[in-house]
Amino acid sequence: MPNYHSFDDVEKAVHSGIIRNEPELRQAFVEALKNEISRICSSKSELVRYYMIPRLDETLKGRRPDIRLLNLVFEIEKPDGDLSRGRTQLHDYMKTLREISGGITIHGIVLNGIHAEHWVLNDNNLTRRQDGPMKDVVRRALHEFCSEKMPVVKEEDLADILGV
Q1: How much is the pTM?
Q2: pLDDT reported for residue 64
Q3: Is 39 exposed, middle or buried (0-12, 13-18, 19+ CB in 10 A)?
């Protein structure tokens, strides 16, 4: 599998048929996400960036989102597939995470390697912030994410940060 340094690389691979299924897309997206976080969140301290590690296959009250990055949840669908099923799952994950966190704002992105939607759950209002090309939607969401304070969503997040 090639290296994916950016969301552009992932989109090109989906368009060309190199990425053929959801697990391949998830792996490529996580690789690109780590690289993009380093660039987009470069203003954050080294310590903060170190703890912005994507959590994979984490269970949230019996639910398993594809990726969680603090208060940002990702749901990945099959390459160039329909986002509607993933959107429903994403909303459920966001509601569960908001409940676990004690009510902080939760961001969610559903994507298929080409298209994406960014959703926000705040004060029990679920709104679509943006939809469009995956690279644009995810980069904009990461810029927003990196400009805000990094919230501790679960006790495990705090333990990771403090090394306890």
Answers
A1: 0.86
A2: 74
A3: exposed
